[in-house]
Specification:
51% helix, 375 residues, 3 domains, 10 strands, alpha+beta, 4-stranded antiparallel β-sheet
Length: 375
């Protein structure tokens, strides 16, 4: 009983640390400075007795003791989730495997919530996770079901390579097939670039898209045929066939070009167009590195299962979102959380899922092959 309590407390404490990672890492805030947690509203350093996992949130009634800014319920939920996952991993694997999966599960939790909030998965998690997975497979080859260190390392390398190149291929093929999205209107519609030079925003009809969300690659560009352009308070008229071009560096119209400096809510770029072509990707490159991280911990079978399960769940969620928004949403759907869910399923019920599939489908198919190869 004492061991179970210790594992649960360790999960809660690490969940509290993951909350700091989720908040700080995508914002470029060091995890070491400041060392103590702080309120993002008033900047108050939080004393230890107000930073107890779950308990402090309950005692403070979900508010900062300094400025009474609401503290999101997600903080105790992340702590409880991490504590629960640690207990499940300990129950399933015991020692010495459980600590390896505690590390992996912590990476999944951090990546999931960062991707939901910011649509990115930082390299510290993806690349760092690949290195951690390789080292763990070297030191604890049992995580790959092997005894020899070199066998565990080879399976980890194979999983990382497969995860990376498999999704890299999907990204490249997706760019070729779906790399452009054209929006047409029956009447001329106002197009604006506003916001600030640091974070310019494209507004077109019901679309409001940060330009940073459009330019995944240096060669990506937005194209909108137009007859005139208003910029810097000056109205310019183009030749027949001219188009407004936007790229990561700035604006092009006819023979002239401008940077995004000076474009603001007070001095926006304006024109009227009947069509606009936007670049897009099948998924972000962070997902490619994230699946490599998953492969480093779970091997090639875990990569294939995570991708399959994550794709099914992600597709269902995407279809529901399109139905709710009637296809008008131009927002990106993060895929990382669904990959994490697929990896989570593989860790805890992967073999059971393969058994179930093998019993339901004559011949066992693809997943029966995976099951037999793991025996």
């Amino acid at each position: 009983m004492v061991t179970w309590i210790a594992v649960g407390l360790l999960g809660l404490i690490n969940g509290s640390f993951l909350n700091a990672v989720i908040h700080r890492l995508p914002r470029g805030i060091s995890l070491l400075h400041p060392k103590r947690s702080f309120c993002p509203g008033c900047g108050k350093m939080i004393p230890w007795h107000e930073n107890l996992p779950v308990a402090s949130w309950v005692l403070l009634q979900g508010r900062c003791s300094g400025c009474e800014m609401p503290i999101s319920i997600r903080y105790p939920l992340v702590e409880l989730l991490t504590g629960g996952l640690y207990l499940l991993a300990y129950a399933r694997f015991g020692l010495p495997l459980a600590p390896v999966f505690w590390l992996f599960l912590s990476l999944l939790v951090a990546a999931t919530f960062i991707d939901f909030d910011h649509l990115i998965i930082p390299d510290e998690i993806t690349k760092g996770g690949v290195i951690a997975g390789l080292l763990c497979s070297l030191l604890v080859p049992g995580m790959m079901g092997r005894v020899a260190w070199w066998q565990g390392l080879m399976l980890s390398l194979t999983g990382a390579a497969l995860g990376f190149f498999l999704l890299w291929g999907v990204v490249e093929l997706g760019k070729l097939a779906f790399g452009r999205r054209r929006i047409r209107t029956e009447v001329p519609t106002l197009l604006e670039i506003t916001g600030s030079d640091a974070e310019p925003l494209l507004i077109f009809g019901e679309e409001r898209i940060p330009l940073a969300d459009l330019f995944y690659r240096e060669k990506d560009q937005v194209e909108a045929p137009c007859a005139w352009l208003e910029i810097d308070g000056e109205r310019l008229h183009g030749l027949e066939g001219d188009s407004l071009m936007l790229n990561p560096r700035g604006v092009i119209f006819g023979s002239r070009s401008w940077g995004y400096e000076g474009i603001s809510e007070l001095m926006p770029l304006r024109t009227e167009v009947t069509s606009i072509t936007l670049p897009r990707e099948a998924m972000g490159f962070g997902d490619v590195k994230f699946l490599a991280c998953i492969g480093a911990f779970l091997g090639w079978k875990g990569v294939l299962f995570s991708l399959f399960a994550g794709s099914i769940v992600g597709a269902l969620i995407g279809i529901m979102m399109m139905a709710v928004t009637r296809g008008r949403s131009g927002g990106r759907i993060p895929f990382g959380p669904y990959l994490a869910l697929g990896a989570l399923l593989w860790v805890f019920v992967g073999s059971e899922c393969l058994d179930f599939y093998a019993n339901c489908v004559t011949g066992g198919g693809f997943f029966l092959l995976l099951h037999q190869s793991s025996m």
